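Saturday, quiet lab. Running sequence design on the structure tokens for the scaffold JK sent over.
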């Protein structure tokens, strides 16, 4: 069971209280986590990745085991501790402005 922690505004959109729990068959990659998240919570489609390019939205970052995976290819394998559910996968909203 993959554990995903979303920023508060995405949790609100998905009507989640706490972390999302995902079941993924096969390899656990950035793509498989985001695909499964969007399948289980269709209201999140387009909020994490751009509809057309499938690229990460600006001001969102991906973290696994305290490492930034935001700029990694979507087919990058995530660590075993994420795949086993021991550690959560974080999608973090960045803050900008003046």
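Result came back. Writing it out in full:
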């Amino acid at each position: 069971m993959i554990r995903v922690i979303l920023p508060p505004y995405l949790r609100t959109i998905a009507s989640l209280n706490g972390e999302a729990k995902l079941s993924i068959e096969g390899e656990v990659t950035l793509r498989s986590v985001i695909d499964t998240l969007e399948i289980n919570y269709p209201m999140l489609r387009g909020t994490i990745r751009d509809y057309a390019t499938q690229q990460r939205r600006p001001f969102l970052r991906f973290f696994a085991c305290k490492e930034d995976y935001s700029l990694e290819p979507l087919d990058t394998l995530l660590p075993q501790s994420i795949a086993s559910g021991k550690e959560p996968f974080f999608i973090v909203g960045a803050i900008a402005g003046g």
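Notes for JK: DSSP finds three helices and five strands in the chain. The chain has one domain: 2-93. Ask whether to fix the surface positions before the next round.
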